[in-house]
Write a structure and sequence with these properties.
- 42% of the residues lie in helices and 24% in strands.
- By secondary structure, it is α+β, with helices and mostly antiparallel strands.
- The protein folds into two domains: 151 residues, Jelly Rolls (Sandwich), CATH 2.60.120; 72 residues, Orthogonal Bundle (Arc Repressor Mutant, subunit A).
- The strands form two sheets. Strands 1, 2, 3, 4, 5, 6 and 7 form a seven-stranded antiparallel β-sheet that branches. It has a three-stranded antiparallel β-sheet with strand order 8-10-9.
Length: 242
């Protein structure tokens, strides 16, 4: 299921590879990783010598579906989205990658091409590790393999939930679940455009707008440009189960 919200704007420029962080500080960035954070400090310092630091502008492509899966990236700042595109430009967002999370590990481990396209949603930076480096690390430090398996198990569980939502929940329920799951802070606000929300729940922007307008009429949410404030989280939760 994809949205018909229109073709996404993508900056296909090459990522910038440069030494924007001292080598002595790179191991601290690797400590953020859900996988590489299990390493001892001396191992992270050694590994940091083999990292290639990359920066990406907003809307710049990190990986393209079908490209060789010869590396993985640990995001250290910014945010990435993992998505699929239909032939007419419709977009389905599968996941958001936040600092500390890896991306590209599936293709790297399976020796298969990239299964999805990854795009920076805001200026971002990460530490790129070639496959040969990661495979050697797994052989030397089995704890990394265990951490990677745990991460992939969690990822599979999330993908199963996404598929189930797309099959069993209608658009109103999917929008309500997204808002309940992503409410942040005391203000209970969700920073998201309606276009990105539509791409995430697998619906058109028009249908998502109808849902949000209905939720606002019922007093469940308050809408403003790029921000949705959840007023009645309990009511949204009940809407998911209806």
């Amino acid at each position: 299921m994809t949205t018909r919200a229109g073709r996404a704007h993508i900056n296909p420029g090459n990522p910038v590879s440069r030494d924007i962080t001292s080598r002595g500080h790179r191991h601290e960035l690797l400590a953020l990783s859900a996988i590489l954070g299990v390493l001892a400090q001396e191992d992270r310092e050694r590994l940091s010598e083999q990292c290639i630091e990359r920066t990406f502008a907003k809307n710049q492509v990190v990986y393209v579906a079908g490209d060789p899966g010869d590396s993985m990236l640990v995001l250290t700042s910014g945010e990435l989205k993992v998505c699929h595109f239909s032939a007419d430009g419709g977009e389905l967002i599968l996941a958001s990658i936040m600092p500390g999370e890896p991306i590209g590990e599936l293709g790297m481990l399976s020796y298969l091409p990239r299964s999805a396209t990854v795009i920076a949603t805001r200026p971002s930076a990460g530490m790129m590790l070639p496959r040969v480096v990661v495979m050697q690390l797994i052989e030397e430090r089995p704890a990394v393999a265990v951490a990677m398996l745990q991460y992939l198990a969690d990822l599979t569980r999330k993908m199963n939930g996404l598929v189930a939502d797309l099959v069993f929940l209608d658009v109103h329920q999917r929008v309500a679940r997204f808002l309940v799951s992503n409410t942040q802070g005391a203000s209970r606000s969700v920073k998201v455009t309606q276009t990105n929300l539509a791409s995430t729940v697998g619906a058109s922007r028009q249908r998502v707008n109808v849902c949000l307008q209905e939720f606002q009429r019922r007093g469940w949410v308050s809408l403003s440009s790029g921000i949705i404030r959840v007023v009645d989280r309990d009511a949204l939760g009940l809407a998911v189960r209806d």
